[in-house]
Design a protein that fits this description.
Distance between the termini: 58 Å
Number of strands: 0
Number of domains: 2
Number of helices: 3
Oligomer: single chain
Largest sheet: none
Radius of gyration: 26 Å
Order of helices and strands: HHH
Length: about 90
């Protein structure tokens, strides 16, 4: 677990360094020629690799929990109302 966290932190740090280098080149602060177009465009594979969906699963489960809670509350209230009407 700790090793996985270290690996993730290393990957994040590497991505940040890479992004900082790209920004520096785009601003003309780096690179041999100083061209603002020295960086190749980002590929779809790089974009797909940088997306993190861990929060999406949690959000879907949270919304499902809220919907189930509303449904159970609604059915419970309906049950109580019917019980009171019959009494």
């Amino acid at each position: 677990m700790i090793q996985a966290m270290k690996n993730t932190a290393a990957k994040v740090a590497a991505k940040k360094r890479e992004q900082a280098a790209r920004i520096a080149v785009l601003l003309g602060l780096g690179g041999a020629a100083g061209s603002t177009f020295a960086v190749a465009p980002t590929t779809p594979a790089e974009l797909a690799a940088s997306v993190d969906f861990t929060g999406v699963g949690l959000a879907i489960l949270a919304v499902a929990g809220v919907v189930i809670g509303v449904y159970v509350t609604w059915k419970g209230a309906d049950f109580v109302v019917r019980a009171v009407k019959r009494a």
